[in-house]
Amino acid sequence: MPLKTRQIGPCFAAEVEGVDLTRPLTPEDVAAIHAGMDEHAVLVFHDQPLDDEAQLAFSRSLGELEHAIGTSLRAPEDYRLPTTFADVSNLDRNEKVFARDDRRRLFGIGNRLWHSDSSFKPIPAMYSILHARSVPSRGGNTEFADMRAAYDALDDETRIEIEDLVCEHSQLFSRGQLGFTDFTDEERVRFAPVRQTLVRTHPVTRRKSLYLSSHAGGIVGWPVPEARSFLRDLVEHATQRQFVYAHRWRVGDLVMWDNRQTMHRARPFPANEPRDMRRTTLIGDGNTVELAQRDAAQVA
Ligand SMILES: [Fe+2]
After folding, report:
1. Which residue from 77, 116, 193, 199 has the fewest beta carbons nearer than 10 Å?
2. CA of 297 to the centre of ligand 1 (A)
3. Ligand 1 centroid to 111 CA: how many Å?
């Protein structure tokens, strides 16, 4: 089937119509969804009454799942969901809203900074697939920024300067920006920085994107303050309103985004209200530094 998509306003994201994600997808459906993602980078599916099993089945039909192990401050015995899900809710294992000063909640507030999922992992995420099970009465939007358009809008001098730069990504950096530095020695080891290129090329469309994330806290070979102010300028550029789509959630929405081509952030909502969002994630096809080296070897 050709995917029936409708671009949302003037922006890059699109709504998909006429697809029931609770049913198995045909190979043609899968190919059409990937093609839609390559083009739009964010796809919105409304009114999808998925349970965990259905969300997993849909996600697995598109690729290999990334597991959420050791990436948050939840201890394994605290997990509300299996590790095939990233639990981006504000709920504990008994479905109770975290207290305002709970460090698991404060760590999760890092998601309010612009980021790309799992950029702090050696092999970062490809797609994130987020399904809304309950939403707060107000706030809690997710905003997406098109990093292809942001790249295209850079001046030539900046494009040349960033072409081969490599950044260091860690959740210690993103949380540190919010003044959350209360990490144990074990967490500091677990969250050790990984390297990612600052520019990446989409494997199918060959379009270039800025690969930014609040997890990026340094540029290899640069003094730290200079690197951070440079990255901050790039994020400011990349998140101008003309590059951003703000998604206002309804229960049953499933939104899928390509972390290789977009950044996103969650917006605040009342601290005492549940927001049950369940994310499945597809793993990417390699570390960005190694992928860039492979690309360069093919060209040479
Ligand atoms: Fe995220």
Report:
1. 77
2. 32
3. 6
User: What's the gap in Å between 157 CA and the centre of ligand 1?
Assistant: 30
pLDDT grade for 1, boundaries at 50, 70 and 90: low
Q: What DSSP letter does each residue of 91-110 carry, written as one string?
A: B-TTSPBPPTT-HHHHHHGG
Asked if the model's pLDDT at residue 9 lies above 80, the reply is: no
Q: How far is the CA of 117 from the centre of ligand 1 (A)?
A: 5
pLDDT digits (tens, 9 = 90+) for 256-300: 999 999 999 999 999 999 999 999 999 999 999 999 999 989 887
Ligand 1 is an ion; its neighbours by CB within 5 Å are 117
Find the 113 Cα to ligand 1 centroid distance in Å: 9
The sheet with strand 244-247 has its strands ordered as 244-247, 142-146, 262-266
Q: How far is the CA of 85 from the centre of ligand 1 (A)?
A: 13
Per-residue model confidence (pLDDT) at position 206: 96
Q: What would the pLDDT profile of 199-247 be if each residue is shown by its tens digit?
A: 999 999 999 999 999 999 999 999 999 999 999 999 999 999 999 999 9
